[in-house]
Amino acid sequence: MPFRKKTSKPKPIPDEKALYDIAVKALARRARSISELRQVLERRKAAKQDIDAVLGRLREHGYLDDARFARSFVASRIENDRQGRRRVERDLAARRVHPEVIQQAVGSGYEEMDERELLRDYLRRKVRLTKPPQKASAVASLYRRLLRAGFASATIVRELQGILRGSARKGQAEIDPEKWQEWVESLSELPEAEEEG
Question: Is-contact 70 177, C-beta < 8 A?
Fold first, then answer.
């Protein structure tokens, strides 16, 4: 006997009260920007004036604030993920936060942050290099990974040069320093982070 597909009744279009409940539940799952939440509510095919009213109420009650959301997002990405400035800017833009709000939040979050120290910490926590990469392709792969993590190309190159010097001081360098320098210098020919996506 063939299985019949259950036909489900189309969901009714939610009114303002139902939309408010949907919005609160969405915010309870995770923090969202105003534009992200608007997108969630628009998928429910609700009336634009109902969506605007719900978003207005949420802002009034302090549940929605893009500036606060962006500051919290930046702090989390620095503290937990050790990501660079560019990555955080891209991620906030993907969450549809206004560019001015992004610049203010990222500017204040990274204001006293030393990018080289953040990169070193990222390498310690996320990459855990025990010795320098042994092949040019491994160096290029590490470089691209650090670009995706949001670090500036010049900072990455300086740190990669420092990795070999540090391992040579510890007596761990198994790579010809001239070859390593050639690999690191060739990194400037690779595409920047914006092209990486």
Answer: no
User: Is the confidence at residue 169, as pLDDT, over 70?
Assistant: no
pLDDT score of 193 more than 70: no
SS in 3 state form for the chain?
A: CCCCCCCCCCCCCCCHHHHHHHHHHHHHHCCCCHHHHHHHHHCCCCCHHHHHHHHHHHHHCCCCCHHHHHHHHHHHHHHHHCCCHHHHHHHHHHCCCCHHHHHHHHHHHHCCCCHHHHHHHHHHHHHCCCCCCCCHHHHHHHHHHHHHCCCCHHHHHHHHHHHHHHHHHCCCCCCCHHHHHHHHHHHHHCCCHHHHC
What is the total residue count of the chain? 197
So what's the pLDDT on residue 7?
Answer: 66
What is the C-alpha separation between 16 and 41, in angstroms, rounded?
10
Asked whether 66 and 97 are in contact (CB, 8 A), the reply is yes
**Per-residue confidence band for 197, with pLDDT thresholds at 50, 70 and 90:** very low
- Burial class of residue 158 (count of CB atoms within 10 Å of its CB; 0-12, 13-18, 19+): middle
Contacts for 179 with CB less than 8 Å, ≥ 6 apart: none
Give the contacts of 40 (CB within 8 A, at least 6 positions apart): 22, 23, 26, 32
